[in-house]
Design goal:
Catalytic activity: Release of N-terminal amino acids, preferentially methionine, from peptides and arylamides
Subunit structure: Monomer.
EC number: 3.4.11.18
GO cellular component, one term: cytosol
Shape: globular
CATH class: Alpha Beta
Distance between the termini: 30 Å
CATH architecture: Alpha-Beta Complex
Strand content: 25-35%
Oligomer: single chain
Number of domains: 1
Structural class: alpha+beta
CATH topology: Creatine Amidinohydrolase
Helix content: 25-40%
Keywords: Aminopeptidase, Hydrolase, Metal-binding, Protease
Number of strands: 15
């Protein structure tokens, strides 16, 4: 079932999204060589709770942390650990929080110190593909317009677009309908309606699109061990197009 939100619900989600954006801004200076995933996770959780929100990923199907922290070849769902970030890493942070039972979901990839040009280009192009996908959001349009837009932009670089994971509806649950692919497919052709709320979240690999889930049951990494990048926003469909909720 696709949930169309009321204006009052979107108002709460806007507040929630703003706080999530502020959390990333607060975290960014800590994303440095020598910092561990567990330390970042604790900083994020403390910030969320202090601001009277709920870290929704913690405990979701048994997930043990507030953040998903995925480094280099890890695509998504990396579990925070004692491993220290190193100069030249790229690290994706993904988080879902709620206020008054309504959730927003966002992800960003950060450079750890100075990174090489290939990783820098991957980050820049993945983030650009996020906004190209968002620009395809409009009432009356179709969900697969988003995937078509992302794919048309990314294909020129020879990168792999992850197919096993994708964007989704969000609100009272972390994952609601509709499914929002990052490539064009006729499987999902739902019409976008005013006040639907979805995530757009391209996951782009430097090499193959193929991925594997590791033995912990969560961490997803590229099949060829090449770097991956992930950016995500929660987006409301409006009468004039869209509103990005996970910004300040």
């Amino acid at each position: 079932m696709v949930y169309v939100k009321s204006n009052d619900e979107i108002k709460i989600m806007r507040e929630c999204g703003t706080l999530l954006a502020e959390m990333y801004e607060y975290l960014e200076p800590y994303v440095q060589p020598g910092m561990t995933g567990l330390e970042l996770d604790k900083i994020a959780e403390d910030f969320i709770v202090k601001n009277k929100a709920v870290p929704e990923q913690k405990g979701y199907h048994g997930y043990p942390a507030t953040l998903c922290i995925s480094t280099n070849e890890q695509v998504i769902h990396g579990i925070p650990s004692k491993k220290k970030l190193e100069e030249g890493d790229i690290v994706g942070l993904d988080c879902t929080i709620s206020i008054k039972g309504l959730m927003t979901d966002s992800a960003r990839t950060f450079a750890v110190g100075k990174i090489d040009k290939k990783k820098q280009k991957l980050m820049e192009r993945t983030e650009k593909s996020l906004y190209i996908g968002i620009d395809a959001v409009k009432a009356g349009g179709r969900v697969n317009d988003i995937g078509r837009a992302v794919e048309n932009y990314i294909n020129q670089f020879g990168y792999g677009i992850v197919r096993d994971f994708c964007g989704h509806g969000v609100g009272y649950e972390i994952h609601e309908e509709p499914t929002v692919l990052n490539y064009y497919s006729t499987r999902y052709r739902n019409r976008l309606k005013e006040n639907m709320v979805i995530t757009v979240e391209p996951m782009i690999n430097m090499g193959t699109y193929e991925v594997n889930v590791l033995g912990d049951g969560w961490t997803v990494e590229t099949a060829d061990k090449k770097p991956s990048c992930h950016f995500e926003h929660t987006v409301a469909v409006t009468s004039e197009g869209y509103e990005i909720l996970t910004v300040k």
